[in-house]
Amino acid sequence: MKILNKSMFAINGLLSLGIVSQQTAISAEKEKRTSPNFIIIFCDDLGYGDIGVYGNPNILTPNIDMMAYQGQKWTNFYVAAPVSTPSRAALLTGRLPVRSGMASEKRRVLFPNSNGGLPPNEITIAKLLKGNGYRTAAVGKWHLGHESPFLPTDHGFESYFGIPYSNDMDKIEATDYFTLAEMERFQAYNVPLMRDDKIVERPADQRTITRRYTEEIIGKIRSYKKEPFFLYLAYSFPHIPLFRSPEFKGRSKAGIYGDVVEEIDWSVGRILETLKEEKIAEKTFVIFTSDNGPWLTYGTHGGSAGLLRGGKGGTFEGGMREPAILWWPGTIKPGVVTEMATTMDLLPTFCSLAKIPLPNDRTYDGYDISPVIFGTGPNPRDVIIYYRDTEVYAIRKGAYKAHFITQPEYGDNTKTFHNPPLLYNLDIDPSEKFDIAKKHPEIITEIKKILEEHLSTIVPVENQLEK
Ligand code: MG
């Protein structure tokens, strides 16, 4: 891109003139990577196929598309769970949710009557960065415990503005979802909007919530611009019930779901524009992704996983593979990255970039993927473990994914155990259509070994979702 080319030409030009040494050029490059700002933009239930640059034919996302052209579009990027609470716990801790007690088969996520949350002894990205001089803020949906000591402000964030759990919870009117959607009745969901540890609005007016989150983040960027910062922006949408600002009503050809995604796209554009205006874009690493796949139960209000099979709640690719765009002008070489990575890799990667040692008293499931991001080395990750709640349903090793258990995402609790497991080659069959288990018993043996080794590292802990 323009900025990258400019700085590289400048350094290369000086090198060829013998004005700076190779060492100086490397130091300058390293200097730029010292204490970068980090922003995670995390959508809720956005599918792999809901963004223009990921192939959606009708939802217009010019700002996110431009972010991808200026940055990296990752096509094999995963979350650790196909539903909200465990997925978020994994993102912020770099650990599988089963290690922190944030996964359960009985209650798949936290609810307004839950008493648990992300345990205080878990170390979030925010806690690590804050302890090393970073300013921090969380904005948006939390869903890791709505009371102290589980709130964002208990977990390393200096401030919080958002809803503490999903936007469809606290439903106080019996009318069905689609009728309420037709009536645009946000009052049917008595969800609180919080600032730090206080409720400031209830029910949250969800019609303007995307815009208000964006304004909050822009305010943080402007006030923290002279210090390193970490901002976690977790949009509550496009999780149902869907609402959007008046300016976006009826704007998208793709109906209300399209309107909602297009408002998020506009917001992403404003955030990147603010970084440029404040002249800190080159110091800021921004990641855009989603907590799980589309909620297919809600039909046209539920988004799309594109060519991937399945959606939210399940362990086929559509439930856990997400759009993921990495943006850092002048530092990240633009392109499409087909290497595997997960949200759990962000914590070790951020620590590596900010020169913060990883705590050595716990097991991490994430890897420092900076060699892949910067093209300096091989990918440390070649395995993805697909948990549904507390159980491993599938494992991917390289191109091959074996399903040991499958189950419909919602509405049917029947588990199907597969022996031999279903086996798909995701490189040539990303839609998981053609079972090749019979042809590759040796791959199944290898993946079974990975499963056994993985299970031996799991230590039982107190379950937080059943409290
Ligand atoms: Mg979600």
Strand order within the widest beta sheet = 6-5-4-3-7-1-8-9-2-10
Whole-number mean pLDDT: 94
| SS class | alpha/beta
Secondary-structure element order, N to C = HHEHEHHHEEHEEHEHEHEEHHEEEEH
Q: What ligands are attached or bound here?
A: magnesium ion
Q: What's the end-to-end separation, in Å? A: 50 Å
Number of strands: 14
Uncertain stretches? 1-28
Range of strand content: 15-25%
Q: Helix count?
A: 13
Q: What share of residues is helical?
A: 25-40%
Radius of gyration over C-alpha positions, nearest whole angstrom: 22 Å
The protein's oligomeric status is single chain
Approximate shape: globular
Largest sheet: 10 strands, mixed
SSE map:
Layout: H1 2-16, H2 22-32, E1 37-43, H3 62-70, E2 72-78, H4 84-93, H5 97-100, H6 125-130, E3 135-140, E4 160-162, H7 177-183, E5 193-195, E6 198-201, H8 209-224, E7 229-234, H9 255-277, E8 284-290, H10 317-320, E9 321-327, E10 335-342, H11 346-353, H12 370-374, E11 383-388, E12 391-397, E13 400-406, E14 416-425, H13 441-455
Parallel strand pairs: 1-7, 1-8, 2-10, 3-4, 3-7
Antiparallel strand pairs: 2-9, 4-5, 5-6, 8-9, 11-12, 12-13, 13-14
The structure holds magnesium ion (MG).
